[in-house]
């Protein structure tokens, strides 16, 4: 075990490593309107700028963790941090959307390496009685980026060019690399199972095809040969991935965890909560900038009610759960989320920010009340030898659901926006509201703003319906108390704080 002073310094290095991931998670949202303007990015391209990162991040979380166990956690963590920094610099100086999407995909690979390995190093440097505190601090490093991202991103966009929101990662990465190289010990598990390359390929290809089909459907049509072939091939590849992992003695993803009701329905609640959060973070910044005419920084500041609501109930949720149980707490949180989304779906062109802040706060309150106990419910079901694999699986599903939320809800927004425009609107105006604004026609811009607001209302209404479905499923199927044989109290507490 590492000496006391050294391990807290090592923890600081790990916090720096994950801070860039948390910051990047929200900093891009306030830059979408700017990217649409400066790079002539369509709504579909904006979705891919977001999804390229989310997909690679999601599908590589598990293999990255296994690779670190096998080849050295510190070594691979340093490689992941360096890759994240290099791809951030590449994104900052991208000349077109294709280059930016490619850079974002590589950033996702770096993030997928950083997150599981930074957490897996903690048990190697902290004894059990200090581990919960260490993971709590590590988690703060991740969460700190959520409120900072929109504000920092907005300030950078007001004072510099759009690439600065990516370039800001580079100095943080350099400090994190130096600190991690000096302070972190190397560790590995020589008995870890070999990495299943075929499972990785099946999952990456399958998810990529499915998300591409969802994004392309509004343009090509759901019945087009390209969309149907991508959907069909993607479903087949995911089916092969599932079959392979059910049959292997050492699967990439242990799908037998879903035999536990607490794990299954806690995961479902987590996924539904993530769907709503990603949907609102995609559509609302565009509304505030393109419809309300706010700057990037003003937009970032106006997203704070969501984060504050999440912070308040996220802190209170464990105490409420101890009194009411998982079922009641999570289903109530999901219902509160549905209420917030429902109120937001009544937005019209003249709606002021106070009304927006009110429903955004309600969504945040519900999100914290649902998400934190849902993760706790999942982790509480896991035996000691499955804690890492199980938490990695849930994080993967959360990231995948976020990718599909951006793809599906973004496609819904695009479809409604296009249908609501006048039939004689120029084709370029149908690409996005930012493209319509460039034409300099006040009457057309007014129609485009009306169309966008109706599209956003549709997205929020679907988000409300999804949250209600999540609340109902939780109420019907999630046990009040998650149970798993062989879970010791210290391990459960460690998982709860994480």
Written description of the protein model:
There is one protein chain. The protein has 3 domains: 1-191, Up-down Bundle (Growth Hormone, Chain: A), CATH 1.20.1250; 196-251; 257-498, Growth Hormone, Chain: A (Up-down Bundle), CATH 1.20.1250. The radius of gyration is 22 Å and the shape is globular. It has 18 helices and no strands. The chain has helices spanning 4-27, 32-38, 43-71, 73-92, 97-125, 128-159, 164-167, 169-183, 197-220, 225-247, 261-291, 296-302, 304-344, 353-380, 387-420, 433-438, 442-477, 489-497.
Brief overview:
This protein has helices at residues 4-27, 32-38, 43-71, 73-92, 97-125, 128-159, 164-167, 169-183, 197-220, 225-247, 261-291, 296-302, 304-344, 353-380, 387-420, 433-438, 442-477, 489-497.
Overall 3D form: globular
* CATH level-two architecture of the largest domain: Up-down Bundle
Number of helices: 18
Gyration radius from CA atoms, angstroms: 22 Å
Q: What's the end-to-end separation, in Å?
A: 21 Å
Task: State which percent range the strand residues make up.
Answer: under 5%
Order of helices and strands: HHHHHHHHHHHHHHHHHH
- Largest sheet geometry: none
Total tally of structural domains: 3
* Overall mean pLDDT: 82
User: Would you identify the regions where 5 or more consecutive residues have pLDDT less than 50?
Assistant: 485-498
CATH class of the largest domain: Mainly Alpha
């Amino acid at each position: 075990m590492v000496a006391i002073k050294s391990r807290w310094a090592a923890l600081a290095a790990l916090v720096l490593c994950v801070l860039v991931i948390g910051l990047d998670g929200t900093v891009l949202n306030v830059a979408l309107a700017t990217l649409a303007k400066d790079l002539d990015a369509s709504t579909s391209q904006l979705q891919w700028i977001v999804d390229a990162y989310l997909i690679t991040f999601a599908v590589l979380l598990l293999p990255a963790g296994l690779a670190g166990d096998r080849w050295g956690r510190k070594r691979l963590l340093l490689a992941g941090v360096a890759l994240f920094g290099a791809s951030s610099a590449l994104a900052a100086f991208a000349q077109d959307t294709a280059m930016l999407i490619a850079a974002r995909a590589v950033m996702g690979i770096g993030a997928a390496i950083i997150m599981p390995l930074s957490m897996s190093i903690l048990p190697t440097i902290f004894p059990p009685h200090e581990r919960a505190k260490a993971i709590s601090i590590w988690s703060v490093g991740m969460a700190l980026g959520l409120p900072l991202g929109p504000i920092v991103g907005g300030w950078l966009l007001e004072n510099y060019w759009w690439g600065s929101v990516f370039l800001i990662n580079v100095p943080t990465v350099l400090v994190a690399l130096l600190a991690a190289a000096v302070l972190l010990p190397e560790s590995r598990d020589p008995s870890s199972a070999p990495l299943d390359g075929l499972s990785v390929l099946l999952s990456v290809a399958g998810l990529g095809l499915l998300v591409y089909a969802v994004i392309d459907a509004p343009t090509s049509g759901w019945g087009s040969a390209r969309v149907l072939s991508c959907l069909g091939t993607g479903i087949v590849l995911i089916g092969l991935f599932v079959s392979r992992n059910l049959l292997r003695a050492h699967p990439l993803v242990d799908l037998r965890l879903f035999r536990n009701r607490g794990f299954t329905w806690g995961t479902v609640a987590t996924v539904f909560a993530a769907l709503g959060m990603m949907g609102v973070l995609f559509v609302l910044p565009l509304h505030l900038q393109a419809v309300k005419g706010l700057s990037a920084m003003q937009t970032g500041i106006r997203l704070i009610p969501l984060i504050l609501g999440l912070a308040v109930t996220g802190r209170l949720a464990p105490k409420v759960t101890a009194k009411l149980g998982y079922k009641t707490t999570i289903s109530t949180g999901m219902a509160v989320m549905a209420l917030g989304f429902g109120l937001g779906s009544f937005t019209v062109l003249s709606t002021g920010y106070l009304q927006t802040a009110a429903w955004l706060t309600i969504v945040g309150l519900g999100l914290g009340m649902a998400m934190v106990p849902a993760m706790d419910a999942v982790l509480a079901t896991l035996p000691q030898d499955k804690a890492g694999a199980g938490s990695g699986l849930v994080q993967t599903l959360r990231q995948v659901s976020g990718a599909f939320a951006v793809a599906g809800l973004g496609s819904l927004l695009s479809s409604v926006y296009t249908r609501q425009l006048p039939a004689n609107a120029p084709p370029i105006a149908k690409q996005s509201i930012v493209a319509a604004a460039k034409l300099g026609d006040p009457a057309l811009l007014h129609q485009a703003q009306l169309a966008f607001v109706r599209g956003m209302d549709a997205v929020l209404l679907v988000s409300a319906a999804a949250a209600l479905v999540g609340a109902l499923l939780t109420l019907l199927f999630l046990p009040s108390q998650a149970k798993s044989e062989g879970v010791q109290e210290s391990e459960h507490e460690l998982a709860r704080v994480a």
